[in-house]
């Protein structure tokens, strides 16, 4: 299909939230001075309500829903004289809905309150009168000096002053903030190291000037004014609330931010609220019901104004009694208005008040019982089940058309292994990657990997080349380059060593698996990093063939220029033992190449070729470089660096600018190549999702060659596809970049990208004009994407990408990931899903309609920001094709059924109004009308929403094409709503006219004709039975719960009506109903009507279902026919029971059992019905139009043949 987006459409891709201006001043260890500044307390509250606000705020939240507000208005109207019904008719269902909703809110808030109380009452040692005094967290104030013990939690955001560890160091775990379990090092300012004891800490008096509270976890700007000195404070001295202290006896700190002003609390307030597409369409349906209600009331009001006439003198329309003005012929306009209000009250049941509560209940159970407990999505190795973090988007999972996926840790395992390297223009490493094997297979070549018997292999190191191992590098032509390469690996990082200082026992805590792999590689090459302090790194260097000859060397770390997504590099300035100053730098190739010294073109060219070779093998690459510094140059630069670190405004920007001053004229050492293998089942999962009609885009920060080959390896791209590659790595762009004119570079790249996009779009049009054009794939890098997302080119990019089968975006930043997702979400108005595992994927996950986080090795930030969490990418197929499709189908049925049953019930009242002179006379008793939605018809629809299943989970995976029905939204189109409306009109006519007409000749046992309440009770009985039986007709799978709920609802009606009509009270309205049911059940008319009317009412539905299934079947009905004799092996009940019966090994095998199998032969009765051949032909890419007349003829022949076989 050729997708095209109107060029006039505009949409925003997101904006940056500005920081709070100004700064705050804090007086340390001086509560009195801080009182006047009125800082917030440390008590936190995550509850939505308190004792006084629960009722008003809770009711406000409920009445924000249009349906609830409408029923409140109707309830008020029902208390006036113009109301034909008792107030209980509307007040009772509204009250029940509100009470259930408020109980749910109160329960959830009570849980939050208990959690808050537990946290606020935790004890912490605070300095008071030269003693450590334990007080609750909630009593902590800004400026207090506190002591945190080992394994204790940080109670507020603290400025780290002193530690029991040497050199003022402590180790913290930030799992509560970002999910990362690796330890992080923090270092106190050297001037404050001594303030550890109570006596010494009580002498500490200082002033902190810092930024205002904000939600940035990784930045902090401030100064400590202490002893007439201004000391810059960085994130390295900040301990955030919620972190836990590790490997440190205790630390002392001063409170900076408290309570809701702490960074972790400010991060909890900005969770985007998502509503499903189906829910938004439901709002439109409710508006249509409002319009229908208005039309019905308008017709009745006009009819009433016309009907009232003085000729009906016997009706006493002109009496002066209270309430008679409503029918006074002298003022027809007043009659019109009053009747309008009367009928609004009477027809109020057309709006389904219990719909929202029922849907919420269904979604909640679907999430907690079905998704969370599905063994097919349970990962045995990490003991991680699937987790639905919200229940609002269950049905959205069944309509996803575009998936935006990260690569590292999402498609791959994020288990990095050092695999190859390039040093001084020479490639080292003999291994063959999975990607290279896949490429060879596509070319018909068989690769054999020769593994050395002496190969060293450990987690993080999978390198095989004897030329560099065991000191053999000293015999290489470039030993000096090798030595600098290994030193760069061992020094330029932020890794923390743990455990014994022995190569085989030490463990490394790294911010990413890549960093750990590089340090492990340095260890295996003979440069063993074994100890770190805030200012020193200790390396055990081995230079000879005998590994026993080692030398411990210490390097002083002077400055660390940290990695971020903008810089894409990390640098360390260190001092050798002999006093030499060296800067080591590692980063992305394009960033390093821009900063190389002149005269390095030869090694630059060779290394670039090696990088392309590594990228083609699917390896992740980094370039290493170094630079010797003159002491005078360094001292001059360091002054600027210290000044930038002390700045309270734009500190990050100033640090980046200062870094640019020294990160230049670098000498290229070489490059590293790290392998990250694909997760199990990724190619099969992507193939399944593509067959389901889902388009997958990969958004990665890797090189273009790496990304393309990963796409090949996971079946996203194949050789049969036509590829469009838009890259900034062209000779023309490089030539312009060499001139270093930024304005000219930007103009040229924008023009080139525009030309490429236009050229590709023209080729797309020509491909679609041909009869059998190939599938298309687009590959674009981050630099070109920056210009392609420009408003002038955005629509062209969107038109091109929507017509591609797969899209790969390389070298993209986290912001660009979110922008691309928003482009499709808002520009194309398609339902999107973002999936990732790291902090850099959070913006993409939050920008998509549905966010899925993978609980991998990059922490839990993606999971914490997601709507659903899974352990492996392959589980996405189960989440979408099984649970998503089932949820979509069920919610569609629930919504349309609510629409049907309420419209049917209200229309019987509407037809009765034509026989009462449009007076607004009620047809049903008030209690009947009150309990119809909340008691007599409530349970069966909830059972359908929970257990209805068109095909089993294994068939959903076997025939992923079934998912396309959700993408096309075939079950909630306006055509479907119109069909239900037609059936409602038909049934309501049957109920009213059959019952009322047949009752004219019917008599009770006393020989009297039936009155209004006899007829209405008979009609209501038929309505209850019919709408409950109708739910069985619409169910694909009928369980014992269906029978119990339907039978229980009908039985509940009879029990209620026997009790209600068997009791006589003084109230007039109830007297009308006394003994009515007993009188009816003594007549044959009752039983005859009870059988005939529901059968007649359901006849049209039965015919429609038969015709639709026979001549215009849905895809799932075809599969039902083909597999109708097979047992359903994966019912919801068995799925829950099996969890307690399987061993761990059985659970694992069960988890992979529903993988897609080969298609069975297309034989049998199913393929003699219309549309069956065309469905499977479509799977094979062949278009075959349906021919109902031929199929009807074939079906009749087939049925004769079958009858002959039975004989």
TrEMBL record:
Residues 1195-1207 have a biased composition (Basic residues). It is an enzyme of class 7 (translocase). Residues 26-90 form the P-type ATPase N-terminal domain. ATP binds at residues 406-408, 515, 563, 586, 620, 700-702, 811, 817, 840-841. Residues 122-182 form the P-type ATPase A domain. GO terms for molecular function: ATP binding; ATP hydrolysis activity; flippase activity; magnesium ion binding. Belongs to the cation transport ATPase (P-type) (TC 3.A.3) family. Type IV subfamily. This is Phospholipid-transporting ATPase. It comes from Cicer arietinum (Chickpea). The gene is LOC101513003.
């Amino acid at each position: 299909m050729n997708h095209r987006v109107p060029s006039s459409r505009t949409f925003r891709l997101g904006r940056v939230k500005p920081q709070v201006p100004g700064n705050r001043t804090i007086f340390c260890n001086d509560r009195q001075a801080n009182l006047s500044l009125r800082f917030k307390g440390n008590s936190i509250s995550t509850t939505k309500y308190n004792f006084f606000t629960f009722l008003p705020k809770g009711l406000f939240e409920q009445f924000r829903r249009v349906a609830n507000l409408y029923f409140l208005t109707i309830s008020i109207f029902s208390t006036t004289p113009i109301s034909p019904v008792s107030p209980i008719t509307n007040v009772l269902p509204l009250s029940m809905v509100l009470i259930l909703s408020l109980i749910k809110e109160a329960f959830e808030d009570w849980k939050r309150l208990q959690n808050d109380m537990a946290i606020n009452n935790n004890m912490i040692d605070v300095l008071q009168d030269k003693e450590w005094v334990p007080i609750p967290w909630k009593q902590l104030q800004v400026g207090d000096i506190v002591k945190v013990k080992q394994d204790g939690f940080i109670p507020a955001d603290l400025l780290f002053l002193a530690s029991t560890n040497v050199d003022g160091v402590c180790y913290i775990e930030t799992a509560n903030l970002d999910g990362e379990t690796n330890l992080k090092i923090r270092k106190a300012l050297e001037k404050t190291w001594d303030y550890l004891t109570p006596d010494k800490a009580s002498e500490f008096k200082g002033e902190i000037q810092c930024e205002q509270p904000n939600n940035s976890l990784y930045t902090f700007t401030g100064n400590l004014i202490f002893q007439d000195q201004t000391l810059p404070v960085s994130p390295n001295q900040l301990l955030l609330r919620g972190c836990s202290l590790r490997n440190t006896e205790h630390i002392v700190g001063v409170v900076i931010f408290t309570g809701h002003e702490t960074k972790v609390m400010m991060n909890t307030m900005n969770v985007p609220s998502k509503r499903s597409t189906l829910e938004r369409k439901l709002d439109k349906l409710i508006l249509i019901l409002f319009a229908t209600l208005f039309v019905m009331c308008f017709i009745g009001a006009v009819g009433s104004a016309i009907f009232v006439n003085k000729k009906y003198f016997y009706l006493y329309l002109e009496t002066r009694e209270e309430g008679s003005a409503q029918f006074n012929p002298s003022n027809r306009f007043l009659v019109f208005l009053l009747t309008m209000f009367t009928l609004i009250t009477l027809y109020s049941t057309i709006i389904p008040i219990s719909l929202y509560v029922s849907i919420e209940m269904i979604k909640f159970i679907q999430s907690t019982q079905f998704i969370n407990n599905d063994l097919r999505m349970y990962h045995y190795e990490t003991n991680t089940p699937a987790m639905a973090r919200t229940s609002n988007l269950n049905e959205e999972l069944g309509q996803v058309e575009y998936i935006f996926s990260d690569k590292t840790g999402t498609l791959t395992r994020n288990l990095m292994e050092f695999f190859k390297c390039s040093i001084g223009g020479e490639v080292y490493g003999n291994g063959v990657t999975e990607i290279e094997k896949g490429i060879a297979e596509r070319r018909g070549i068989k690769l054999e990997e020769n593994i050395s018997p002496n190969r060293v292999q450990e987690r993080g190191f999978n390198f095989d080349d004897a030329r560099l191992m065991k000191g053999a590098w000293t015999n290489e032509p470039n030993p000096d380059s090798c030595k600098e390469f290994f030193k760069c690996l061992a020094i330029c990082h932020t890794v923390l060593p743990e455990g014994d200082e022995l190569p085989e026992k030490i463990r490394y805590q790294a911010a990413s698996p890549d960093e750990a792999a590089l340090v492990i590689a340095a260890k295996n090459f003979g440069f063993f990093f074994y100890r770190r302090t805030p200012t020193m790194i200790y390396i055990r260097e081995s230079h000879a063939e005998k590994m026993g000859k080692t030398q411990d060397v210490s390097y002083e770390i002077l400055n660390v220029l940290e990695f971020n997504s903008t810089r894409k590099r990390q640098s360390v300035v260190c001092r050798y033992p002999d006093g030499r100053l060296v800067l080591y730098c590692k980063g992305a190739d394009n960033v390093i190449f821009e900063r190389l010294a002149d005269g390095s073109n030869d090694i630059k060219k060779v290394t670039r070729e090696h990088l392309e070779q590594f990228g083609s093998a699917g390896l992740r690459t980094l370039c290493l470089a170094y630079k010797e510094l003159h002491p005078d140059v360094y001292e001059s630069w360091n002054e600027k660096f210290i000044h930038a670190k002390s700045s309270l405004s734009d500190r990050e920007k100033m640090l980046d600018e200062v870094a640019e001053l020294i990160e230049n004229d670098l000498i290229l050492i070489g490059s590293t190549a790290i392998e990250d293998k694909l997760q199990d089942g990724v190619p099969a999962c992507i193939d399944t999702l593509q067959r389901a009609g889902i388009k997958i885009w990969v958004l990665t920060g890797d090189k273009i060659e790496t990304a393309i080959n990963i796409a090949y390896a996971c079946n996203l791209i194949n050789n049969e596809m036509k590829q469009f590659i838009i890259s900034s790595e062209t000779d023309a762009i490089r030539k312009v970049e060499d001139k270093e004119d930024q304005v000219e570079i930007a103009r040229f790249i924008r023009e080139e990208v525009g030309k490429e996009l236009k050229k590709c779009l023209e080729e797309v049009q020509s491909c679609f004009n041909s009869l059998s054009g190939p599938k298309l794939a687009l590959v674009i890098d981050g630099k070109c994407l920056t210009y392609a997302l420009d408003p002038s080119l955005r629509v062209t990019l969107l038109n091109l990408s929507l017509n591609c089968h797969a899209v790969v975006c390389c070298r993209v930043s986290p912001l660009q990931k979110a922008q691309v997702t928003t482009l499709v979400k808002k520009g194309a108005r398609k339902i999107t899903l973002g999936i990732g595992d790291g902090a850099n994927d959070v913006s993409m996950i939050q920008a998509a309609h549905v966010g899925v986080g993978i609980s991998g090795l990059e922490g839990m930030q993606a999971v914490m920001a997601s709507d659903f969490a899974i352990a492996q990418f392959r589980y996405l197929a189960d989440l979408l094709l099984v649970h998503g499709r089932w949820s979509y189908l069920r919610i569609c049925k629930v919504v349309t059924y609510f629409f049907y049953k309420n419209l049917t019930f209200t229309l019987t009242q509407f037809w009765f109004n034509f026989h009462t002179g449009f007076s607004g006379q009620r047809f049903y008793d008030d209690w009947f009308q009150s309990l119809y939605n909340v008691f007599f018809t409530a349970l069966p629809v909830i059972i359908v929403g929970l257990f209805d299943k068109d095909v089993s989970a294994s068939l959903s995976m076997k025939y992923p094409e079934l998912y396309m029905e959700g993408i096309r939204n075939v079950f909630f189109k306006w055509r479907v709503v119109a069909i239900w409306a037609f059936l409602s009109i038909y049934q309501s006519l049957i109920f009213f006219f059959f019952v009322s007409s047949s009752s004219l000749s019917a008599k009770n046992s006393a020989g009297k004709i039936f009155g209004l309440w006899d007829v209405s009770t008979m009609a209501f009985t038929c309505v209850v039975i019919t709408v409950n039986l109708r739910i069985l007709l619409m169910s694909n799978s009928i369980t014992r719960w269906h029978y119990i709920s339907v039978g229980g609802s009908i039985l509940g009606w009879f029990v209620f009506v026997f009790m209600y009509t068997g009791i006589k009270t003084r109230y007039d309205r109830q007297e009308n109903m006394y003994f009515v049911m007993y009188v009816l059940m003594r007549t044959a008319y009752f039983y005859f009507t009870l059988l005939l009317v529901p059968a007649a009412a359901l006849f049209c539905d039965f015919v429609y279902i038969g015709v639709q299934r026979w001549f215009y079947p849905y895809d799932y009905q075809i599969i039902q026919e083909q597999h109708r004799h097979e047992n359903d092996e994966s019912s919801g009940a068995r799925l829950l029971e099996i969890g307690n019966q399987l061993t761990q090994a059985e659970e694992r095998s069960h988890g992979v059992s529903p993988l897609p199998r080969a298609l069975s032969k297309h034989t049998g009765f199913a393929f003699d019905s219309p549309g069956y051949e065309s469905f499977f032909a479509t799977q094979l890419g062949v278009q075959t139009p349906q021919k109902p007349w031929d199929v009807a003829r074939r079906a009749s022949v087939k049925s004769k043949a079958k009858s002959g076989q039975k004989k």
